[in-house]
């Protein structure tokens, strides 16, 4: 089975976020970047498990500048066979999807995998767009995946229960929590990653129609008032006089 796992670089969740140039540019100074956890922990690891069970190959793909290579190399250290970086600075999900699809069209992948969302933009857009551009079935938010031959059985949580779907390869899928368990690269994997191929591909020329105009930080959360369980009168007073309805 030939699997493509699309990965993103995101700020670590503890990073302090700020903006420059009047709020139009993300300030990367002092920010520690990581591979998007949904891409790494669930999509990539499940892809590797499928390869270990049935054979094949796992390619990781990123759309971004050379600064992303360190994050890509981590994916190789975890176990991916090779990596591709499309050398572009995407401004929108659609541009990213077009570049991924334009690369994947001629590669004959049986399965294209994504994390369910990135932890910075939380858009959940790229996977569905790529599937549409490649004319593939798309299953989102998968938390269980089994493949037997060319038929896959996929489970995902829905309101009030679990949905089970069956689909034949090739198809695209976004990975949610539960699809796999995080793997930590060992020293052997880290050393081998240095010798694995990371191919840089120039962008296909897809037009990026999005322009970032302005970023805004959310309002800071207000403090929390703690009330002793016995002091119900004070709690009622605060709810009447100071509590805000959002």
Summarize the entry for a quick read.
By secondary structure, this protein is an alpha/beta fold. The protein contains six helices and 14 strands.
Number of domains: 1
* N to C succession of SSEs: EEEEEHEHEHEHEEEEEHEH
Shape: globular
Task: Let me know the average pLDDT.
Answer: 92
Major sheet description: 7 strands, parallel
In total, how many beta strands? 14
Second rung of CATH, namely the architecture: 3-Layer(aba) Sandwich
Name the CATH homologous superfamily: HUPs
Which class in CATH terms?
Answer: Alpha Beta
State the helix count.
Answer: 6
Description:
The protein is an alpha/beta fold and 246 residues long. The chain has one domain (2-217): 3-Layer(aba) Sandwich (Rossmann fold). It has helices at residues 37-54, 69-78, 93-104, 126-134, 187-193, 232-241, and strands at 2-6, 9-11, 19-20, 25-26, 33-35, 57-64, 82-87, 111-115, 138-142, 144-148, 151-158, 161-168, 171-175, 198-201. The strands form four sheets. Strands 9-13-8-1-6-7-14 form a seven-stranded parallel beta sheet, with helices on both faces. Strands 10-11-12 form a three-stranded antiparallel beta sheet, with no helix packed on it. The protein has a two-stranded antiparallel sheet with strand order 2-5. Strand 6, helix 2 (69-78) and strand 7 form a beta-alpha-beta unit. The longest helix has 18 residues, at 37-54. It is globular and about 65 Å long.
């Amino acid at each position: 089975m030939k699997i493509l796992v699309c990965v993103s670089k995101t700020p670590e969740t503890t990073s302090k976020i700020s903006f420059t140039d009047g709020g139009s540019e993300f300030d990367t100074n002092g920010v520690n970047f990581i591979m998007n956890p949904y891409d790494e922990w669930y999509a990539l690891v499940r892809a590797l498990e499928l390869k270990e069970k049935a054979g094949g190959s796992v390619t990781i793909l990123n759309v971004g500048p050379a600064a992303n290579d360190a994050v890509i190399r981590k994916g190789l250290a975890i176990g991916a066979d090779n990596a591709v970086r499309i050398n572009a600075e995407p401004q929108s999900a659609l541009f990213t999807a077009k570049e991924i699809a334009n690369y994947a069209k001629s590669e004959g992948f049986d399965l294209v995998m994504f994390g369910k969302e990135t932890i910075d933009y939380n858009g959940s857009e790229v996977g569905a767009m790529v599937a549409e551009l490649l004319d593939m079935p798309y299953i989102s938010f998968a938390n269980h995946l089994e493949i037997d031959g060319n038929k896959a059985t996929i489970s995902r949580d829905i309101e009030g229960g679990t949905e089970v779907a069956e689909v034949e390869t090739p198809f695209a899928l976004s990975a949610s929590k539960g699809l796999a368990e995080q793997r930590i690269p060992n020293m052997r994997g880290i050393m081998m990653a240095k010798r694995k191929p990371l191919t840089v591909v120039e962008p296909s020329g897809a037009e990026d129609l999005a322009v970032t105009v302005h970023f805004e930080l959310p309002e800071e959360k207000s403090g929390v008032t703690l009330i002793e369980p016995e002091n119900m009168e004070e709690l009622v007073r605060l709810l009447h006089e100071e509590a805000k309805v959002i």
